[in-house]
Write a structure and sequence with these properties.
Distance between the termini: 17 Å
Mean pLDDT: 96
Low-confidence stretches: none
Largest sheet: 6 strands, parallel
Strand content: 15-25%
Shape: globular
Oligomer: single chain
CATH class: Alpha Beta
Number of domains: 1
CATH architecture: 3-Layer(aba) Sandwich
Structural class: alpha/beta
Order of helices and strands: EHHEHEHEHHEEH
Length: about 220
């Protein structure tokens, strides 16, 4: 049975779910938060230590400004309402990606990280304004500036995910089969599960089914 320490998720399909069910993309983003809470609870039940969620990519700035603002307002409300509860549950929140938002949101993100820093039950890595290509370019620049030898060990020191194990598996919901510039280096040997359901429809049963399947897979890592 494969050990399981780190799950990564591309939460795709919120907008499409909202248009289909509520005639509003924003309604889908709001509904997607309910799924996030369910998956967090199930991750704790399965004693998984790291959960990385792709919330907003460097490419998502191309979306309509009103939708982007709604997403950030939703995130602000979530943190204000839930950070105390996350802290009580011994959950650590870490942001990966550049904090290039409003002063108010940046402050709230930093405050949430500091408040939960010592928690070890579960670490949630929230990928915000994150792009793997940018991450890798920045890591190589730091290697150059520090005049370090270019190798895998040294590069890992400058990634957003330094000190984290690579994801054991990735889930992407929304019936889309691509990585969308997410953890390209870290996912090199991760198992990948593409799920047809839109993120708001994804549930605990679906999650546990994937966990069970992952644990039974023979992982070779290039070996036979």
């Amino acid at each position: 049975m494969n050990p399981l320490n780190h799950v990564a998720i591309i939460m795709d399909g919120n907008g499409r779910w909202g248009l289909k069910n509520k005639n509003s993309r924003n309604a889908g983003h709001r509904e997607g938060l309910n799924t996030v809470e369910k998956i967090i609870k199930e991750t704790i039940k399965n004693k998984i230590k790291f959960l990385t969620l792709y919330a907003f990519s460097t490419e998502n700035w191309k979306r309509p400004k009103k939708e982007i603002q709604f997403l950030f307002n939703l995130l602000e409300s979530f943190l204000k309402d839930k950070i105390e509860d996350l802290n009580k549950q011994k959950i650590r929140l870490k942001i990966i990606g550049k904090k290039n938002f409003s002063t108010k949101l940046n402050s709230l993100l930093i405050k949430s990280e500091k408040k939960t820093f010592r928690n070890k039950r579960l670490q949630i890595n929230l990928a915000l304004n994150y792009g793997s290509k940018t991450e890798l370019i920045n890591a190589f620049k730091e290697l150059r500036d520090n005049k370090e030898k270019i190798n895998e060990k040294n590069l890992n020191k400058y990634l957003e995910t330094r000190n984290l194990p690579d994801p054991d598996f990735l889930i992407r919901t929304g019936n889309t089969n691509r990585l969308s510039n997410f953890l390209l280096w870290q996912l090199a040997y991760s198992e990948i599960f593409f799920e047809k359901k839109l993120w708001p429809d994804f549930n605990e049963k679906d999650y546990n089914k994937i966990i069970k399947k992952y644990k039974s897979i023979k992982r070779n890592f290039g070996n036979i």
